[in-house]
Amino acid sequence: MAQINHIKDLYENEDLSLREISRKTGHSFKTVQKYAYQSDWSEDNLPNTEPQGYPVLGDFIPVIDEWLEDDRKIPRKQRHTVWRIFCRLRDEHSFSGSYSSVKRYVRKRRFVMNSPNGGYLPLEHALGSGQVDFGEHIYYDGAGQQQNGYALTISFPNSNKGYTQTYPSQNQECLLEGMKRVFEHIGGVPPRLRFDNMSTAVVQVLKGTERVLTDGFIRFMLHYRFQAEFCNPASGNEKGNVENKVGYSRRNAFVPVPTITSFEDFNESLWEWCEKDAQRPHYKKKELIQKLWKDDEANLLNLPEYPFPVFRYASLTVSKNGFATIETNKYGLSPALSGETVQAKIFFDHVEFFHDHRSVGSYPRSYKKGDEVYDWTQYVSVLCKKPGATLHTRFFRQMPQQWQSLLEQASGKERKNALQLLSEIVSDGNVSLCDDALELAGENGRTDVDSLRQCYYMIAKKEYRPNPLQLSASPVLN
Q: Residue ranges of the alpha helices (H) in 357-433?
């Protein structure tokens, strides 16, 4: 700066010409001219730390960009390092430049890609991003009774394509199971998904966009590597595409009111409706939704190596009657577990119970209020000690019809023996053979318990008959 100040002083105060200053200071004419004429000396202009061009790397930049874009779809552990990019350029594309030039460009490119708006055209919705919401509808169950169902819809605003799966509740198991099924059906994961502040995902709404999320939702989000965005409270318009898609699917896929006896089977049929609906033109872009979907599909993240098992654990105490309670509904376990603590794996459609790491029961999950779900096979061993109570139990009518008749006609020791045989059949895991043993005994005109046991053994236990000895010759006396 001292020499610059000297040039300026010679020009301003001593009235020397530019050439005289050049001869006196030894600097070139252009250097003297630059500082003599300069009027703005502030440091407002930042220096360039990045190269403005890449003379050697320039032809290879499209290849690097393609690799970096593909990396966005796969887990971080398998993405390109700078060194791997350099090696591939050298080995596959005959790149003769330096590692440092590759490193400078990759660092700059990644910074642009990770910026909120860097590297993208000003689109209304990012490609591949989706919105998620539940919509209520009615359906008829197997008994013809009207029930409430909840259709989970994931829509993609860019193409207006949507996928719908329905469940008996809006709980976390149904939410995550529905999202998982959509991910597996489309063969990828949306990089960003927008939700409202549903309690199954959000524990607490903080200031701005900050949220406290449930543990189950966080694990699911980390497993599938998508980013979750949440609307402001009472701002459904912030995910207006899925709001419209929920109403559209309800008016079309659920009219007339469907009969649902199996959510698994009904949801399979919904895939066909979703794909067929994508053959119509986009409401604004006037192109087929399915054609626009190709751009969304190309920007999906890859599915993880292992699927996410959707369930939650709960520790429960078994009542004196052998019931474990989940959300006001009681599930019958063996009365021998009275007072014990069992662990429940709660799925959206069934519940599995374990005691000391051993399975002690599995039931379809009930979504009623105050329902009792039990299995007569859990109580047969206890009935052997109290045969007189058999006809008065709530689960008696669950037993096979022929055994109900047999136990009603029997009494005293005969009923106890029949219950012991039934308990043996259950413990062998041969409940399906209960009626077969009775029918075989009836065909032979026998109804006593010993004959029933013999018939059961004939059906369930294979008779062992050794093969005859194969002698090479007749025996000879010595």
A: 380-383, 401-409, 412-427
Here the contacts of 442-448 (C-beta below 8 Å, separation 24 or greater) are 447/406
Q: What share of the chain is helix, strand, coil (3-state, %, to 5)?
A: 45, 20, 40
Q: In degrees rounded to 5, what are phi and psi of residue 133?
A: -165, 155
Q: What is the C-alpha to C-alpha distance for residues 97 and 57, in angstroms, rounded to an integer?
A: 7
Task: Give pTM, 2 decimals.
Answer: 0.68
Burial 386-395 (b: 16+ CB within 10 A, else e): ebeebeebeb
CA distance 234 to 325: 34
Q: To the nearest whole percent, how much of the chain has pLDDT over 70? A: 91
State mean pLDDT over 336-342. 89
Q: How far apart are CA 419 and CA 425, in angstroms?
A: 10
Mean pLDDT of 232-245: 81
**The two three-digit tokens of residue 191, written as one number:** 């990089």
> Distance between CA atoms of 116 and 126, rounded to whole angstroms?
11
Residue 410, sorted as left (phi over 0), alpha (psi -120 to 50) or beta, turns out to be beta
Burial (CB count within 10 angstroms: exposed 0-12, middle 13-18, buried 19+), residue 135: buried
- Angle at Cα 326 formed by Cα 368 and Cα 149, nearest 5°? 35
Listing DSSP states for 129-161 in one string gives -EEEEEEEEEEE-TTS-EEEEEEEEEEETTTTE
Instruction: Choose between 451 and 46: higher pLDDT.
Output: 451
